[in-house]
């Protein structure tokens, strides 16, 4: 890593977890397990058919028990432990592979599938196993008001102020395994670059935002991320 770099922001997307066995969103047919993402990842979809949305996230939550962090998650955790400057990993992923790898300075901007959000009392808390229409809130004790703590289309991603501050102040912005199709995350590279940061993309193929990066490293995350961290 360049010695003049002190502050680093890393953005990760579904591609970093692909080699752990978790599906990405925009594959060849643009579908995920037979669903259009927009049909299960909007507040309107949840209002229309909460059972289907719970099913979608329950299946993905169960899958998390079968997978483990890969070399890319572990390399970022190593960077977190050893980097003497400021580091912030901002993930769009709702899996828990970064924390299981050991990353500490981490923001889940699109929420976490292992958390529930009670719409009755507004509490958020850890959740394992299936969540259903009759699930009971552990804080207020009422049933029927729980949803996965996920940021859906049309909702405000979490900790945007802290992320924007870090983007404005960083010397290096790295984007790993994201298609650059979803905002505001897709615009982070432009903010960081405008404020003077070096920018690097690591992805299996050029993304929609590749032209905004100073450097593009093409390859599987488990190869390119450990090489970049060293
Ligand atoms: C590998 C690999 C390997 C594979 N190694 N790489 C019109 C224009 C502009 C914006 C909008 C618009 N209309 C609406 C909007 C806003 C909307 C939006 O962006 N829509 C787009 C579809 C255009 N955004 C929102 O609504 C957001 N909120 C918002 O904007 O609030 C207002 C606001 C205003 C001002 C400031 C701030 C906010 C909320 C977005 C919520 C996204 N939610 C989802 C689903 C929930 C989470 C979940 O279920 O998991 O989040 S959508 C889905 O996409 C998920 C992901 O986090 C997100 C990004 O996907 P990601 O991670 O990039 O995955 P893929 O599959 O797309 O790409 C994987 C990449 O990896 C590929 O490139 C592969 O090649 C690569 N890869 N294997 C390395 N081994």
TrEMBL record:
It catalyses: N(6)-acetyl-L-lysyl-[protein] + NAD(+) + H2O = 2''-O-acetyl-ADP-D-ribose + nicotinamide + L-lysyl-[protein]; N(6)-succinyl-L-lysyl-[protein] + NAD(+) + H2O = 2''-O-succinyl-ADP-D-ribose + nicotinamide + L-lysyl-[protein]. Binds 1 zinc ion per subunit. The active site is at 110 (proton acceptor). NAD(+) binds at residues 13-32, 92-95, 177-179, 203-205, 221. Substrate binds at residues 57, 60. InterPro entries: DHS-like_NAD/FAD-binding_dom (IPR029035), NAD-dep_sirtuin_deacylases (IPR050134), Sirtuin (IPR003000), Sirtuin_cat_small_dom_sf (IPR026591), Sirtuin_class_III (IPR027546), Ssirtuin_cat_dom (IPR026590). Residues 1-230 form the Deacetylase sirtuin-type domain. GO terms for molecular function: acyltransferase activity. Zn(2+) binds at residues 118, 121, 137, 140. Pfam families: SIR2. It is found in: Cytoplasm. Its EC number is 2.3.1.286. Its cofactor is Zn(2+). Keywords: Acyltransferase, Cytoplasm, Metal-binding, NAD, Transferase, Zinc. PROSITE patterns: SIRTUIN. NAD-dependent lysine deacetylase and desuccinylase that specifically removes acetyl and succinyl groups on target proteins. Modulates the activities of several proteins which are inactive in their acylated form. Belongs to the sirtuin family. Class III subfamily. 2 residues (Tyr-57 and Arg-60) present in a large hydrophobic pocket are probably involved in substrate specificity. They are important for desuccinylation activity, but dispensable for deacetylation activity. This is NAD-dependent protein deacylase. The gene is cobB.
């Amino acid at each position: 890593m360049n010695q003049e770099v002190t502050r680093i922001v890393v953005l990760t997307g579904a591609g970093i977890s692909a080699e752990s066995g978790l599906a990405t969103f925009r594959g060849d047919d643009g579908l995920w397990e037979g669903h259009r993402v927009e049909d299960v990842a909007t507040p309107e979809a949840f209002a229309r058919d909460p059972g289907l949305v719970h099913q979608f996230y329950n299946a993905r939550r169960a899958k998390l028990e079968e997978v483990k962090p890969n070399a890319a998650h572990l390399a970022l955790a190593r960077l977190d432990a050893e980097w003497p400057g400021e580091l912030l990993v901002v993930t769009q992923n709702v899996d828990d592979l970064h924390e299981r790898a050991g990353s500490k300075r981490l923001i889940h901007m699109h929420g976490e599938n292992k958390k529930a959000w009670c719409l009755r009392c507004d509490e958020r808390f850890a959740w394992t196993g299936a969540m259903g229409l009759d699930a009971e809130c552990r804080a207020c004790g009422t049933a029927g008001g729980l949803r996965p703590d996920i940021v859906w289309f049309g909702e405000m991603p979490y900790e945007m102020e802290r992320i924007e501050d870090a983007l404005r102040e960083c010397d290096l912005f790295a984007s790993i395994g994201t298609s650059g199709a979803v905002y505001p995350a897709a615009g982070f590279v432009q903010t960081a670059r405008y404020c003077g940061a070096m920018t690097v993309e690591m992805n299996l193929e050029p993304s929609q935002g590749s032209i905004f990066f100073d450097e593009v490293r093409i390859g599987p995350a488990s190869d390119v991320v450990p090489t970049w961290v060293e």
